[in-house]
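Page header: ASSEMBLY MODEL / two components / 227 residues total.
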Amino acid sequence: QKEVEQNSGPLSVPEGAIASLNCTYSDRGSQSFFWYRQYSGKSPELIMFIYSNGDKEDGRFTAQLNKASQYVSLLIRDSQPSDSATYLCAARSGGSYIPTFGRGTSLIVHP
Amino acid sequence: EAQVTQNPRYLITVTGKKLTVTCSQNMNHEYMSWYRQDPGLGLRQIYYSMNVEVTDKGDVPEGYKVSRKEKRNFPLILESPSPNQTSLYFCASSPFYSGTSTYEQYFGPGTRLTVT
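Prediction written out in full:
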């Protein structure tokens, strides 16, 4: 059974701080990893994907992948109240087009 | 504009009354899927389709049917809805890529279904 685990939170950080969201996955064959942001009642929106070990940066977002530890993280620098949302982690195995989603971590950025 | 559309966006119905939620994408994607989302349970896949006339069960297929007669459309059918199918439903589509290339799913806006 492929599993993607996330702490449900909520993770509360002050405005301007770095928010760190974590995700672990069980399938060692996973090759691609995704972070989606989902506002309450809205559809998930892809914000980052990563498939190589190390860091990938895009604006205020940095995704970090450690395949040996089966660990993916998302860092949000200079957090803003508009970043308050649920963040879904997803993993896709090589040869499969079907991603497995975690249950999401709720992030609250307070002024 | 590239998008996935779903209709209706909101639906309140009664137990046992057949309903269909439509999903359409204009990106010529091969892969389409349906998810339901419930508080604390995250996104759970109901059915998916790899291409026209090719469908398969996801994690929670009971009580649902799908069809894929055209590439752009992937309707979700509830033959006899029950209250435990009250949920937020998302349709998603994606192109196929090989190897480790990105595999981004594009989600529709969601359909909030209430079965009384």
